[in-house]
Amino acid sequence: MRPVAQTDDDRRRTTRDRATATLIGMTTTTSTPGLDARTRAPVADPPLTEIPDGLRGTGLPGGPPAAIDVRGLTKRYGRRTVVRNLDVTVPTGVVAGFVGPNGAGKTTTLRMLLGLVRPSEGSGTILGEPLGEPARYLPRVGALIESPALYPTLSGRRNLASLAVLAGQDPAGVDAILDEVGLAGRGDDAFRTYSLGMKQRLAIGAALLSDPDLLILDEPTNGLDPSGIRQMRALVRSLADGEREAGANGRPRTVLVSSHLLSEVEQICDWIIVVEQGRLAYQGPTDGLMASTTSRVELRPEHADSLGMLADLVAGFGLPVDRAGDRLLVELDHTAPAAVPGPDGPDGPDGPDGPDGPDAVLAGLNRAALARGITLVEITRQRTSLEDRYQGLVESTRETARSTGTSSMSTSTSTGGEAR
Ligand SMILES: Nc1ncnc2c1ncn2[C@@H]1O[C@H](COP(=O)(O)OP(=O)(O)OP(=O)(O)O)[C@@H](O)[C@H]1O
């Protein structure tokens, strides 16, 4: 771990390495054992921010190391901490979405992973190589960070062929790449005549020239219209599980794609990482994000004058409650240990149907109400949407940062382990 402020050297490195990571072809020499992480990634309810044991670090039995496994990644600019103690693990072979609002630290994190910005702190591995030695892994990484730097007057094909030659690669593969990014029919047209979506897809083609094992795409849907976004989604998904998986080299490709909108990536991602103010808010299987959702319940007693007593009862269960007209709104969060005393206690099973799960909490509430002479005539469950869940995570992470005085706007002298 080395505390480093950004220096001129850093900035020179950034410019030089941006070209390297984004455009220069990379030779793959190492063979990695094949793995279909889509089938191995567990989809059962992981707790927030926790990585299932089998996916942590090099823990895939018989499989390759995680494509990305970094710990305590931190970036400070002067006294301002923009990425804070971030742990990121991306299993090999998945499409991982890196999601967070504007300014959450996504680009800074991706730049650190690509060796374009030097981390203030942090360690770990990328494709099994040390984070601190990007030259060892960059040859197997393709990236699209910011706008593509391609020649406007050259055709798409000539652009890719020139980049391949510059990187010392055989330009023979260019046609296959144009096909892969959906530009086979426009390969002879000048780059400047392309739509924004086509330009982005050609830039991804440039990042594919080296047949990378890890592809990092920073907001590739930025500025695209809905149809461009759909095409980009399909392309990104196909890059991980298209022909390559069964292809000549047999190595799975991992894709890390950032976006500020969960809705843009959740359909194509196996794995989601949510960041806010440089902090990790969630990482795990996409299904896990929804499984950890909070559900809200509306309770309506037979007689409105028993609302006060019912509210006290709900509060006694440790559940947040609001009054709305003739009913109560109760938050049931099945990631939190329920306050209802159960046979397993607060550490007991807390799945939706478990003895500490929301169904059991509701049943307990209902019984307790009846025991006090309150008859519930309506119990309505409302599940939050994935987008609501994402917003909730972002807001609670922001709130944690505010309450601990460690928002990205605050200065920091301590970088020790913090609650996420
Ligand atoms: N070179 C720099 N010097 C100082 N602050 C910086 C620098 N680069 C980024 N930041 C700050 O770091 C924070 C995170 O920026 P970053 O670009 O990583 O966020 P982001 O999540 O990618 O945002 P967006 O979705 O808007 O691109 C921002 O507040 C930004 O102003």
Question: Overview of this structure, please?
Answer:
- This protein is of the alpha/beta class and 420 residues long.
- The chain folds into two domains: 8-290, Rossmann fold (3-Layer(aba) Sandwich); 294-383, Alpha-Beta Plaits (2-Layer Sandwich).
- It has helices at residues 8-23, 37-40, 106-113, 134-137, 156-166, 174-180, 196-208, 226-241, 262-265, 286-291, 307-316, 358-371, 386-403, and strands at 68-77, 80-90, 95-99, 121-126, 129-130, 141-144, 214-217, 254-259, 271-276, 279-285, 294-301, 321-324, 327-333, 376-383.
- The strands form three sheets. The chain has a six-stranded mixed beta sheet with strand order 6-7-8-3-9-10, sandwiched between helices. Strands 2-1-4-5 form a four-stranded antiparallel beta sheet. A four-stranded antiparallel beta sheet has the order 12-13-11-14, covered by helices on one side.
- Strand 4 and strand 5 (129-130) form a beta hairpin.
- Helix 6 (174-180) packs across helix 7 (196-208).
- The relative contact order is 0.14.
- Keywords: ATP-binding, Nucleotide-binding, Transport.
- Residues 403-420 have a biased composition (Low complexity).
- Residues 68-302 form the ABC transporter domain.
- It comes from Parafrankia soli.
- It holds the Pfam family ABC_tran.
